[in-house]
Design a protein that fits this description.
This protein is an all-beta fold and 201 residues long. The chain contains no helices and 21 strands. The strands form four sheets. Strands 1, 2, 4, 7, 10, 11, 14, 15, 17, 18 and 19 form an eleven-stranded parallel beta sheet that branches. Strands 3-6-9-13 form a four-stranded parallel beta sheet, with no helix packed on it. The protein has a four-stranded parallel beta sheet with strand order 5-8-12-16, with no helix packed on it. β20 and β21 form a beta hairpin.
Length: 201
């Protein structure tokens, strides 16, 4: 866990956070009261009661670029992939896939609001233990364009909450997420954005 001061800045780049286990919130990255830039980084296979991947807490400003957040599991609350408590920032060129929340709140991105701008990002294949809550995103975020979400229908048969107002509901047909965060797509995929950690990292 990092950061409780209001003046600090931290940059995380070309990094991998995987197979961590936490007994409280935030299995991999926890940021509070500081500005953070995360780029070309992979957050995979982490487990925690809540916010198993990345926790962005109050007063945090943040920029996520080229990040892969995949196959993280939250057992109780706050979402599995990314939890945004408050603050403001951007998430772009990022892939958020296969995250699992066994209880309430969205498995992809939990929390957040129009203070978070989502651009060229894929949120797909989230799994929830509670069929009555959102799968991919708990709230609708600010739309930066070229965002893809799947599935369109949550487990109770209703339409899932839109991650952004103009999000495209389309199966990205992810073929594989490698341990370095490189995302490959099937030959039939219609997704034409460079999203997630770089394949040569």
């Amino acid at each position: 866990r990092v950061g409780y001061t209001y003046s600090d800045y931290i940059r995380i780049q070309n990094s991998t956070f995987s197979y961590n286990q936490a007994t409280s919130s935030a299995g991999a990255i926890y940021v509070q009261h500081l500005s953070v830039e995360i780029s070309n980084t992979t957050v995979m296979f982490n487990t925690a009661p809540g916010a198993a991947g990345i926790a962005l807490q109050s007063e945090a400003s943040y920029s996520l670029v080229g990040v892969t957040v995949a196959n993280n599991t939250a057992s109780t609350s706050l979402g599995a992939g990314i939890y945004i408590n408050a603050g403001f920032g951007t998430i772009s060129d990022t892939t958020i896939v296969g995250n699992v929340a066994t209880q309430a709140f969205a498995a992809g991105i939990s929390g957040g609001n129009l203070n978070t701008t989502l651009t060229r990002t894929i949120i797909a294949y989230s799994q929830e233990g509670n069929k009555y809550v959102a799968l991919s995103c708990q709230n609708t975020l600010e739309d930066g364009g070229e965002n893809y979400q799947w599935p369109q229908t949550r487990n109770d048969g209703n339409q899932d909450t839109k991650c952004t107002q103009n999000v495209v509901f389309q199966d990205p047909e992810v073929d594989q997420v490698k341990d370095n965060g490189c995302v490959s797509f099937s030959a039939n995929s219609k997704i034409d954005i460079d999203s997630g950690a770089k394949c040569d990292s």
